[in-house]
Amino acid sequence: MAHRVALRAQHPRSIWLMVLPMLLTVLLVAVWAEGQDYYELLGVSREATTKEIRRAFKQLALTMHPDKNPGDPSAHEKFLQVNRAYEVLKDEDLRKKYDKYGEKGLDEQQDGRYESWNYYRYDFGIYDDDLEIITLDSGDFEAAVNSGEIWFINFYFPRCSHCHQLAPTWRDFAKEMDGVIRIGAVNCGDNNHLCRRKGINSYPSLYIYRSGQRPEKFNGERNRDNLVRFSMQFITTTITQLWQGNVFSEIESAFSSGLGWLITFCSDSGDCLEPRTRQKLAGMLDGLVKVGWMDCTADEQICASFQWLNTLDSKEIYNQVINHLPDLELLTSDSFQSKLAHHRWLISFTFGNKNSASNEYKKLQAFLRNDHIQVGRVDCIADSELCQSLYIHKPCMAVFKGLGIHDFEIHHGKDVLYNIVGFARDSVRAFVTTLGPDNFPSDRKEPWLVDFFAPWCPPCRALLPELRKASIQLAGQMKFGTLDCTIHHNLCSRYNIQAYPTTVIFNGSSVHEYEGHHSADGILEFIQDLVNPSVLILDPSSFTEKIKGRDEGQIWAVDFYAPWCGPCQALMPEWRRMARLLSGQILVGSVDCQRFQSFCQSQSVRAYPEIRLYPGNSRQPDRYTSYNGWHRDAHSLRTWALSFLPRASVDLTPETFRSLVLSGRDHWVLDFYAPWCGPCQHFAPEFEVLARMLKGEVRAGKVDCQAHYQTCQLAGITAYPTVRLYPYLGKKRHEQSGEHINSRDANVIADTVRQRLQQLLPRLHNKPKDEL
């Protein structure tokens, strides 16, 4: 059964006195736990990243685990609290609920389980401490693999012995290829949905990712040389052999394209880079300079005229080349407005000293050239007024979209190249604007979605790319903006923002706070529901009128909830989705029991959420059935609610199948099923929806293939459920097997049936009357 948040009645004083000695130890532990919040328990700041939270928890696990403290009777309870803190803070949705409502906003039930000490010591976070290996999760995976860089990613599972055997090799390989390609790792224990979506069904699975191309799986023996050999074949940058006849024309051609040259000079003394090292350099410098080599035994005079780099180490050569490349174009207050008026720019705002990533930023122009995004920088020390007018007070990257200086979006992701490139590409296509006091839509007539956030908040950063996706799908219908509450405190206070992210929709005089999944689909569904509400918000008066006074045959599903209740929040988007699926069949409402507490108590609501179905019997207005199912997703709730509707289909026997379907004068659509078949049970309510949709046009019937095996065998049924159309074609008998419909969606099946009957109309009209 799914969890609910129970309302606690205050115990009489006498009972507390009786049980106090028995609960002394537990209460002491509870006081210890409640005295600190989850961030304090783990020893991290509220700005901590998921990786920092994981590291902090691992350190605590190694010292606080009951396996290491066998003499401490409270060790189990203490570690349960630390484990709970980790489970909540590593999850973006749970972390937001905790930040907003505290522990009362979470699902209260805990299973009391955790891993052994050995697991935390040897299996937990295999690559967290490796600088050359980038740990990716669901939030940044797509941005990484679509950045334009080559990624070699290790999908692993913490309990997989082969994964642990590979780890030392993967670390050595990552050090050798550092800077040449990106080496990543995905923990499929923490990112199960991501791994399943990518088709990962064994561990470890090693894949090369290149933007716009299918991933390539490594299937060889997992040693360092094989991994290097495999990955090098994807570095396809051309290395040019230069000689007296082409060297100057090649150099001039590259210069005209804005590219320099890195040339290695080979002589009979052996001071030449190995081919593999040259290829690595070509990959590291792709798009920045062209790479070539020259045989100095044949072209000695030309070789003597070039500047030499006194190293054969690929990383040292790379660093020297990057240092020699020109810096990003400097924009000043005099040129800023004119430059940004008609072109798209990615701007680096700096405050004096260059950060460690400044040289890497020189590669941005090469990555974004095909996207027609120019790259520049602004010195906020020299042009402080310009930066202050944009409310930029610290180093950052921002995309200006070619519509002037006020239409821009600031990057709040990781300060790494792949993340910045992905952000720039997404931002220029999206319609999200960074807001401030000057452009905040407090009195605008057009609808706006505003995301109040803090840059340090991980759920906030995860939501930003979803907002960009939603803005593209709602272009022209709704505008999107983000407001940084660490800068604009007064604006956020005016709208009583207490947790991040808080997403609010301003529609004229109406203001609606978004509650639901932090995804583009969730936002779209919420907005659609605002335009055309599927759930009726009930108060005591309307509840009495519509539920207690419902018409005969009218069925209502009602959710009694409290805004602070974690399971209630998780149910909200599913409840709205269920209401849309039930549109026209069952009415759906909700009651806020925090606002109408006494009313809910009068209705005997004792826990949240309380889901009730009031059947279509107006003579018993107080009668209801509570939902006690384990799953609270839209489809499970819909199936439960539809089970209360009167059936619109009929059960067929071998005799009625022959007389009504094969020999009758009606069109039929049939569901061939088996009672033990899970997909059949899932499809059953959908078939009832179909039967009601086609009522008056096509009759709907069901055949139990376990009870009537021979009938189904003669009809050619080989799988369950199977949907068949049996159209009436006049005196000509129906075909025994009917016409197969390959769908389990009521809308699709109904459309298919109607289209097929429309095709058959000319045949029926052309038949003589005595054949009809």
TrEMBL record:
Residues 37-102 form the J domain. InterPro entries: DnaJ_domain (IPR001623), ER_disulfide_reductase (IPR052460), ERdj5_TRX_C (IPR035674), ERdj5_TRX_N (IPR035673), J_dom_sf (IPR036869), Thioredoxin-like_sf (IPR036249), Thioredoxin_CS (IPR017937), Thioredoxin_domain (IPR013766). Keywords: Disulfide bond, Endoplasmic reticulum, Glycoprotein, Oxidoreductase, Redox-active center, Repeat, Signal. Residues 1-33 form the signal peptide. One of its GO terms (cellular component) is endoplasmic reticulum lumen. It holds the Pfam family DnaJ. GO terms for molecular function: ATPase binding; misfolded protein binding; oxidoreductase activity, acting on a sulfur group of donors, disulfide as acceptor; protein-disulfide reductase activity; protein-folding chaperone binding. GO terms for biological process: ERAD pathway; IRE1-mediated unfolded protein response. PROSITE patterns: DNAJ_2, THIOREDOXIN_1, THIOREDOXIN_2. SMART domains: DnaJ. SUPFAM superfamilies: Chaperone J-domain, Thioredoxin-like. It is found in: Endoplasmic reticulum lumen. Residues 122-236, 419-532, 635-762 form the Thioredoxin domain. PANTHER family: DNAJ HOMOLOG SUBFAMILY C MEMBER 10. This is DnaJ homolog subfamily C member 10.
